[in-house]
Amino acid sequence: MKRYIYFISSLMMLFLYPNDGMAAELPLTLEEEDWRLIVDTSDADSDRLCQPGNIDMYELKLENTSGNKKDVRMHAFRQEGGKHRDDGVATEEADELTANASLDARNLPIAQDVEALDVLILWQEEVDGQYFKQHFMVPLLASD
Prior knowledge:
The structure is a single chain. A hairpin with a 5-residue loop joins strand 7 and strand 8 (131-139). The strands form two sheets. The protein has a four-stranded antiparallel sheet with strand order 1-2-3-6, with no helix packed on it. By secondary structure, the chain is mostly beta strands. The chain has helices spanning 2-16, 46-49, and strands at residues 28-31, 35-41, 55-64, 69-79, 87-97, 102-111, 116-125, 131-139. It has a single domain (23-139), classed as Immunoglobulin-like (Sandwich). Residues 1-23 form the signal peptide. Keywords: Signal.
């Protein structure tokens, strides 16, 4: 009887509690007033490009959802546990980005133990030339 209760409780815990190592569901869309960031797995054959099992291939698509922007820069950094700094993985730039246009960063090799991607967007408005900043945090591993 004790084994039966232990077995049933183990099954319930297995299905009710999320797995800590589970990756975020992709494609993931994050949106703010001026920008939409879409994170997905890359179409590239990741087993051919890097060591299978250790690295996942991602792609980022940044869409301009409002008026024209100048001097647009997208920087992506990987956040790893235990580090006090973030390592850059991609930089994309455009002199001008019209409304509904996008910047793409493809085939980004990211180790499976990376907790999150930190995406920073810098741009100027056409009207006054002032610089603006937008920040997106993309979870890759489920939080504890």
